[in-house]
Specification:
By secondary structure, the chain is mostly helical. The protein has 11 helices and no strands.
Length: about 250
């Protein structure tokens, strides 16, 4: 074929066709890699589901509005993401136990799930802080369930006895078990540490009022009150309500 034949009418040699095919495949491969790289980068920078800037304040707002389930939905993922944050764990537990024991479909509240979460962390975490916070939260779960012996056992597994809410929570349990003097010491220790001051002062004053004899009590001597071993103990329901009120009111102030 003459060399002066127009290029668009010249036949393509097999070698040239194979080379062109390899070039097309290379460009296609590069294009696919570029698209995959874009997808990967966009996946890295896709923001996670945003949480409120202050989940505790948001949970308080929801509880005040009569929406404890929504409040727990705010607190749970943040608390599970930060198992060493004792205020978050404390708020999550107390919020969970404000849910009704049975929902509108008569399904029981899932207390086993939250206890199992803390029990696992308390026994398997490599962090002493996480173990301490988990024992505190687990004890609080048992306390709010009415099992004060298990609650006390969990509280006494905590190595760091200066954790916020530990001494006041142990004091409430000791008071329920009838150990008023030990409960008083716990409340006073919480105050001395400067932790949950509002809750500790409230519980201590209530404990002292319940121990105070009536004006006609023969044990009243020279204007001083002696402790009463048979002083009536508050019911579990009253203790739960008092603890919840102290938690939310002290946080609000």
């Amino acid at each position: 074929m003459p060399d002066n034949q127009p290029w668009f009418r010249r036949p393509i040699s097999p070698d040239h066709a194979e080379s062109a095919g390899r070039g097309d495949r290379s460009w296609l491969l590069l294009l696919v890699m570029f698209v995959l790289a874009l997808v990967g980068v966009s996946g890295v920078f896709v923001p996670e589901r945003s949480h409120p800037p202050d989940p505790i304040a948001e949970a308080h707002r929801l509880v005040a509005a009569g929406l404890p389930e929504e409040a727990e939905g705010v607190l749970q993922p943040v608390a599970q993401a930060h198992p060493d944050d004792d205020p978050l764990q404390y708020e999550w537990v107390t919020c969970h136990f404000q849910l009704p024991e049975r929902d509108n479909n008569d399904h029981p509240r899932d207390d086993h799930r939250i206890r199992g979460w803390y029990d696992s962390l308390a026994t398997s975490s490599d962090s002493r802080t996480v173990r301490d916070v988990s024992h505190l939260a687990l004890g609080l779960c048992w306390s709010l369930s009415g099992d004060h012996e298990r609650a006390l056992a969990a509280f006494r597994q905590v190595a760091d006895t200066t954790l916020p809410h530990l001494n006041i929570s142990e004091g409430v349990v000791l008071g329920e078990l009838g150990l008023a003097a030990d409960a008083e010491r716990c409340f006073r220790r919480e105050i001395a540490l400067g932790r949950d001051m509002g809750g500790a002062v409230s519980n201590l004053s209530q404990l002292l009022r319940e121990q105070r004899p009536s004006p006609r009590d023969p044990r009243r001597c020279a204007g001083k009150y002696l402790p009463r071993d048979d002083a009536p103990r508050p019911s579990v329901g009253r203790l739960r309500a008092r603890m919840a009120a102290n938690i939310w009111l002290s946080a609000a102030t």
